Amino acid sequence: MDYFFTDEQKTIKDLARQIAEERILPVRADLDEKEEFPWDIMNELGNSDMFRVFIPEEYEGLGGGCLELCLVVEELSRVCSAVAVSYAASALGCMTLMEYGTEEQKQKYLPDIASGKKIGAFAVTEPTAGSDAGNIKTTAEKVEGGYLLNGTKQFITNGGEAAIYTVIALTDKTRGARGASAIIVEKDTPGFTFGKKEKKMGIRSSATSELIFKNCLVPEENLLGKPGLGFIQAMRLFDKSRPGIGAQAVGLAQGALEAAVDYAEQRVQFDQQIINIQAVQHMLADMAIQTEAARALVYAAARHVDSGAKNVTEASAMSKVFASDTAMKVTVDAVQVCGGSGYMRDYPVEKMMRDAKILQIYEGTNQVLRNAIAMNLRKRKGRTA
Amino acid sequence: MNIVVCLKQVPGTTQVKINPETNSLVREGIENIINPFDTYALEEGVRLREKYGGKVTVMTMGPSQAEAALREAISLGADEVILLSDRAFAVADTWATAYTISRAVVKISDFDLIICGRQTIDGDTGQVGPELAEMLEIPFVAYVSNIEEIGDKLLRVRRMVEEGHEIIETALPAVITVAKEINVPRLPSLRGKLRSKSAPITTWTINDLDVSEDMVGLAGSSTQVIKVFFPQRVSQAEILEGNLENKVDTLIDRLKGTNLC
Fold it and tell me: Does the beta carbon of A6 lie under 8 angstroms from any beta carbon of chain B?
């Protein structure tokens, strides 16, 4: 289907696909098996300017928006969702900075993210604050010379590998979520260490780690925007980043669909290729319909975000929920089409099915996002604009 | 350090089909690519530029479609590209090709090193590089697998030989052909790709070079392709009859009758 991309968008998509097929495909099973962070591939992505895609031109980027980011994420995820999320999390790690940072802050950090020399990460989740993100406990006490951070962040993507972290912490713990602020913390800041590296069901070569702050002193100029707005900044960030998770889901579903079609084409049972069997045909057709519908919704939501629209919560939540539910269903069906082989680790759909589950969980569980959608639905009385 | 990289656009397949009537390659439906061996030459050129400064000029001889290969070279890091294209250059053998390229290199004049791939995957001769050096009267080293050192007007390289390697020191300017062991070519960059779309392509025709018409193209070629054909496959299997002992005896007799033993 033609989604009317510009020449530049087509170039970005094509190059992302080339990198995925030439550099990621040969190593994806190995990366998954060894649970190794894909540094070689991150470097390749950097050399090919992929991290420039989402950075403004003034900071050595290419000035793309949500849609361009989605195109890269989709193509990477079509081959390996773990690589895709490691890439996307670097964008997530600097989006608050791009939105609320001062000129000095942007000049200091963004060019290195753009070149891929450094990668970013975003940290809000804590043991007590998952869906209830307002219930964070990490504090950033204002002291002489800056903010003193104490607390533990959990399940942080790119944790331990990223050099630049946007951390949401309480600068005023008496005010709860309204006392939260976004603060940049660089790796190797004294008092900042990494805890448990998580062992996961899927996206295993991506890094997921605890961040531990013990009297970690961060200079005052690392505060992003005004103190007390951290929670709102985080919510707005996710509103803009969720189509990216949708794109990750679409890429994953696409990869699984292709693997299932390839298998059905060559697998012979009852003296025929199983793709000739109507039961299989209908499964594949449904997988294709759902994937394409998810893709259209993700692109539409990304374009909505890029249009500068004021309220994008609902559209971006819809794209994330629908695409991730689709990816889960399509990957489960891809394993089913591939039968016993599909269940084996020698075939890619087994990994894809494991990789899909997280998409329904992170960046807002699909249940929490349905709440948000329903709330907006009540506000607009179910009417369309 | 100014580097000239020579590359060729070739059919992107090993499944070559030949039209028996015209004796030429069937090009329909086959995508053209940069000769894979030449991608190592380009990569090495770009790496040297990144290390020592200067510029990388990529040159190719071919029809106007070869512009695509040059645009790709820009996306991979080439600074300037030159297309040698003229009807008069067509159907050149390696000698006439090397001669034409040598004249173009003379026109560039300011260069320290010329890098070529070890051979193309279509012609497979590996001759243009050495012929080019000969015509320019400068040193030549083939199958370079590592550039050890570049000094003032001096180049030290490791080159592959059948059972090991040699370290060779030579004066600059020089021509080298590189083996695929020398590097892993990078993928294009987005900025390079975007730049390549609008980058100017310099085209030189026979009028731009100091050559006479009888020295280039078919007229300047010392060799000519008379016929291109697939060798006929003749299979001559013979199944021996009889019991095992008889079969072995017959086989031994037959083998003795050949020059095999």
Answer: no
